[in-house]
Amino acid sequence: MKKILSFFLLIFCVSLLSAQSGRPGIFDPDRSETYINAYVSSDMLKQVCHNFSVDNIIAAEHNCYTVRICLSHNQYDEFLALGIPFTFVSPLRANVRMAHNYAQLTNAWDRYPTYGTYTALMDTFQRRFPNICKIDTILGHTDANHKLLVAHISNNLQDKGDKPSFFYTSTMHGDEPVGYYVMLRLIDDLLNNYESNSQVQNIIDNVDLWICPLENPDGTYRNHNDSLNESPYSTRHNYSDIDLNRSYPIAGESFNENGPYPDEVQAMLNFSQAHHFTMSANFHGGAEVFNYPWDTWSSYQRTHADDDWWQYVGNNFASTCHDQNFFYMRDLYTGVTEGADWYSITGSRQDCHNYFLGCREVTIEVSSDKVVSSSNLYKYWNYLRPSLLNYIEESLNGFRGVVLDSITGQPIEATIFINNHDKYNSQVQSHLPAGDYHRPIKAGTYSVTYSAENYYPKTITVNVADGECIVKNVQLVPTYVGINEIHDTPAFVIYPNPTHGYLYITSMMDPPKQFDFFMYDYSGRLIHQTKVDSGTSSLNISSLPAGIYIIDIMDNGSVIYSTKIIKE
Questions:
Q1: How many distinct helices (H) and strands (E) make up the chain?
Q2: 66, 88, 110 — which closes off a domain?
Q3: HEC string of 433-464?
Q4: If we measure between CA atoms, which residue out of 147, 378, 116 comes closest to residue 228?
Q5: How far is Cα of residue 416 from the mean position of the Cα atoms in its chain?
Q6: How far apart (Å, rounded) are the C-alpha atoms in residues 113 and 438?
Q7: What is the number of domains present in the chain?
Q8: Are 81 and 105 in the same domain?
Q9: 81 and 125 housed in the same domain
Q10: Which residues on adjacent β-strands are paired with residue 555?
Q11: CB contact at 8 A, 99 and 128
């Protein structure tokens, strides 16, 4: 019966399209955007996902997908030219009540704020809690004369020190305001519970936290500053009819810092680059799922280097939601998905932050309905609160530390690269003024190389457990220092160790010269002999069996350096 119904549904849609395409005015030209369900073959799916703002893939049968698309008015003709059958999606029109002042919003938290109430509430946060909250502006004027505001929450608002920076943002699609409401409640909850809740204290004392509740105010308040609801009252796109989550620099392509990008995107890029976030998340609506990188590549094409960590934190997030309501956050079976395994897009904020900005960002869809009735808003806050707090604390786990100049003791900017692990820009950096770095990662033992321009690299082994933090402060020796001036630093650095293939040998000897390199297996049999020059040389040992090998470096017949390496 299901097959017969699916067949007749497809025939109906084709007939509907044929009838519609024969006459003008299928789409209302006065609407800036329209939601449709398109019935797309697998051959067309990739093209549709990349050319239009796909909002969800609802079902798949007989090699035909039901794809929910938000079309801006300037895409109507382009879509019709594809000849794809479709039906219109009627807005649900949730029962929305608006809070016109601070008291109406905070007395019961059962309303959405007007734009004026939102800005007043943000100002009230910093006036009531000036020691732990400051409101900054990411963008002063959007096209519709709104602001992108952000709450900075910390026990030291002037000096971040060596804390990890964490960023929550919501509602870059203006018609998805549930996350907007939840972020306002989160700010209020953190500030009011700082002195009484140990988890909140830990976050504010040890994390440099930033929360932007509304990334697309022009879309949310498209019709009026005092109302919002399903499109077209609020719109997915910004005032210029641009989908912000398709407008970030594309992972795998070149990164132009100055765009051109939409104003909201450019402002967010500038802000993120200035604050070097360790982790972040952006919130959407229309589904209930934790969507981790990549959006551009499926897990069959290219997995993130930290794929096991993403699954670990994603399952923790979803399962904690399940503890609050067993049926919540259950889309795609587990409530967790790799982005392009669901559907592939390019230009997402998530991929941009992961690929270009060294930040672990995730996209979290928090409500199946884009707009939920005001009377049900509190439920989503209750479902999400524990997961939101736990996820912030994940930025404290893994390994972290500061990187310093071994001579001056001053902090430096360095690259922290996990050998035989990092790929596709997953390495992290230490940043000034503190020289701090933060590396969330799944439990394991890792060979980590620290490197910086004009410094000798250093490789150490780090053992990490889930839910814990290991502090590894590292000093790098500047290359102007001669070997006779170095006391605890070896004459050579050989990395990575363990290795799968290549070894790199960096000489710290001054003045430069050539040395004899010998490599033995653990029984003492000579495996390889060569010459190494000052600077960095490489050696391919990929053909050697796994095991432990001994390296001796000799000068004029005397061993001046000896070490062991592991071939995996």
A1: 13, 29
A2: 88
A3: CCCEEEECCCCEEEEEEEECCCECCEEEEEEE
A4: 116
A5: 18
A6: 36
A7: 3
A8: no
A9: no
A10: 558
A11: no
Whether residues 77 and 167 share a domain: the answer is: no
Q: CA 280: distance to chain centroid?
A: 5
For 103-135, the pLDDT digits (tens) are: 999 999 999 999 999 999 999 999 999 999 999
Residue whose C-alpha is closest to residue 407's, from 475, 350, 467, 498: 475
The model's pTM: 0.82
Look up the CATH number of the domain holding residue 84. Answer: 3.30.70
Structure tokens at 348: 């997402």
6-14 mean pLDDT: 41
| For residue 433, cis peptide bond before it (omega within 30 degrees of 0) | yes
Torsion of CA 126, 127, 131, 132, to 10 degrees: -30
Q: With 50 as the cut, is the pLDDT of residue 211 above it?
A: yes
Q: Are residues 81 and 124 in the same domain?
A: no
Q: Residue 461 has which token pair?
A: 């082994």
Domain end position, chosen among 372, 396, 420: 396
* Over residues 541-565, mean pLDDT: 84
Joined tokens for residue 184: 């306002």
Domain of 19? Answer: 2-88
What's the rounded Cα separation, in Å, for the pair 495 and 502?
9
Domain contains 295: yes
User: Is residue 219 located within the same domain as residue 345?
Assistant: yes
